[in-house]
Amino acid sequence: MTTTADEDLTLPEYRDNPFIAKLPPPMSTHDALLAMAAPPIFNAAERDYPAHLRAHCISRLKGYFEPLETHLSLEAKFGLLIRQGYLCRNPTTADYTRRVREGATRVFEKDLMAGGRSVRSTASSFALIGCSGIGKSYGMARILELYPQKIHHAEPRSLDQVVWLKLDSPHKGSPKQLCISFFRSMDDLLGTRYSAQFGSSRRSVDEMMVHMAHVANLHALGVLIVDEIQHIREASGTGAEALLNFLVTLVNTIGIPVILIGTMGALPLLQGDFRQARRASGLGSLVWERMENEPTWNYFVERMWGYQWTREISPLTDEVRQVLYEESQGIVDVLINLFMMAQLRAIQLGVLNRRPERIDAGLLRQVASEHMRLIAPMINALKRGDREAIAQYDDIRPMQDQVLQVFSDALSCMPGQPVLGTRSPVASATTEKAASANRDVRGILLPVLEQLGLAGDIAEILVAEAEAEHPGLSALDLVGIITAKLRDRAPANPSKKPRKSTTSATKTAKTPLPVDAQDLRTIISAKKEGVSAYDALLAAGAVK
Asked: What positions does the domain ORC1/DEAH AAA+ ATPase occupy (predicted)?
């Protein structure tokens, strides 16, 4: 590691720049692989722990990270991006003073394009696009952990250098909200009051952007990362265009590198305005497709498969490999969640049915069928290779809630270790906890169904039917089943219209027609078919 640092210090373009000199030295591929890896805590002896404790051990896989070629490439690209961005912002040069002066001019004139461009920008940018769950955000987070976020400089200028800042794109694509989020994040990091000074709702968007660019320049922001960029599709009017133009200005005019991270749904946006910045950068953009069933995928599966907390160690057969890929379609997050839930199901079956705790292809398919309904449209779209459909189903975050619900339900039904000196049969404890879980599910579902307009007694019947047909399912799964039942029954439930016709018939029966033959109502009701009401009245002499 010392040799790498010495080589870095000998580079003339990095040697005399304090903003670069205090950064960690560039890493070799091997060093980056070791630094980024985040294996779960694992001890083979934990396989002998009670079932409820092993369920907690399995949940460690949520933080599991195994660096792959794409992550190592991203780390190298990030290291180059941040150092190149600082080349034109050396605080020991007169160019830096001119750059700060230009920033003050922009603030005074409230115009991002004011002050000229006397100093050439060396900043770059790129976009990281890929299917949700492929590891974009987590991979970037692991890379950011390799760099300090704040560095204090006493000379040649006293300032706090902000090496990186990561923001989530506002849900409505509002440039103003992005600026407010920027000021708040800087305040949290530096202890400043920028949010109170420049983040007031009374300020215009243009004014906020000018101040945001100036603050980023004052604190030598190394790189700005904007995650979930696909959210700006929902921006009203020209909001999305204004936000992208502002980010392009940060790169080309202010000299601050920008990284955009998003799902496939962001591709149409980034193929427009932001491509100008990408052309200027030379670093291009990264599009992470789902993993193919190739050596890299097999390497990851083999590494992951070793973290088993079942009593028996299940072999990784070719059939199991094939099912893992079919049910996850090369999405790492889906694969890990499937592996977690399969282990949990194997342990449950071992406790309740005294069967071997084994993970096989059949169990994996069963778990995927029961607990991955939320992302089934996306998985099916991937199987078909339908890119338009994939862009519509570009968010698998609801599955994380489903996984937590599955673990919560399982823990509520798993028996713990019996207290010494007492005899507590496993079956009775499990029955009591299962009954308690059912009461909890009903307590959740009934108010929800009543809010949707169902009568309380009907809601209870539907919940009871769903529980009887699908025992052990979570509240979330039961909601989907009940919704499907209601949708299938909708045509046979005409609601208000029959009630209205029945009421109308009742009123007609209560008010019979008069028996007087000269009554106008009697004449009209007795007219022959095809005769108009006027002709009937004329024939009876009621009108002239």
From this structure: 120-269
How far does the chain reach from its first CA to its final CA, in angstroms? 114
Q: Is the pLDDT of residue 396 over 60?
A: no
Reduced to 3 states (helix: H, G, I; strand: E, B; else coil), residue 261 is strand
Tell me the pLDDT of the chain averaged across its residues.
Answer: 77
Q: List the alpha helices (DSSP H) in 28-174.
A: 29-36, 51-58, 69-87, 94-109, 136-144
Provide CB contacts within 8 A for 429, sequence distance 6+. Answer: 415
Mean pLDDT confidence for 370-382: 78
Task: Give the tens place of pLDDT for each residue, 431-484.
Answer: 344 444 444 566 666 776 766 667 776 777 777 777 767 666 666 667 777 777
160's enclosing H/E stretch is strand 159-162
Q: Taking the CB of residue 267, how many other CB atoms lie within 10 A of it?
A: 18
Instruction: Compare 454 and 102 and report the one with higher pLDDT.
Output: 102
CA distances (Å), 281 to each of 26, 122, 124, 274, 453, in order?
20, 8, 4, 11, 56
Which residues on adjacent β-strands are paired with residue 128?
261, 286
Please name the residue that has the structure tokens 């660019």: 213
CA dihedral over 191, 196, 200, 205, signed as positive or negative: negative
Predicted model pTM: 0.68
pLDDT tier for residue 498 given thresholds of 50, 70 and 90: very low
Task: Tell the residue number behind the tokens 């949290």, with chain if given.
Answer: 188
Instruction: Work out the number of other CB atoms within 10 angstroms of the CB of residue 355.
Output: 10
Chain Cα centroid distance, residue 217 = 31
pLDDT at 66: 92
d(CA 308, CA 245): 49
Report the topology of domain 68-288. Rossmann fold (3.40.50)
Cβ atoms of residues 136 and 130 within 8 Å: yes
Asked if 279 contacts 145 with a C-beta cutoff of 8 angstroms, the reply is: no
Which residues is 130 bridged to in the sheet? 288
In whole angstroms, give the CA distance from residue 140 to residue 163: 14
pLDDT digits (tens, 9 = 90+) for 262-280: 887 777 776 655 554 444 3
Distance CA 257, CA 215 (A): 15
The torsion angle over the Cα atoms of residues 82, 1, 11 and 27, rounded to 10 degrees, is -30
**Residues 310-314: contacts with CB within 8 Å, 24+ apart?**
310/47, 310/54, 310/343, 310/346, 310/347, 310/350, 310/357, 310/358, 310/359, 311/47, 311/48, 311/350, 311/356, 311/357, 312/356, 312/357, 312/358, 314/346, 314/358, 314/359, 314/360
Q: Which residue has better confidence, 59 or 269?
A: 59
Q: Would you state the pLDDT for residue 444?
A: 67
Q: Give percent helix, percent strand, percent coil of the chain, each to the nearest 5.
A: 60, 5, 35
Residue 363: strand, helix, or coil = helix
Rounded mean pLDDT, 79-105:
86
Domain assignments of the chain as residue spans, ordered by start = 68-288, 295-413
Whole-number Å distance between alpha carbons of 144 and 130: 19
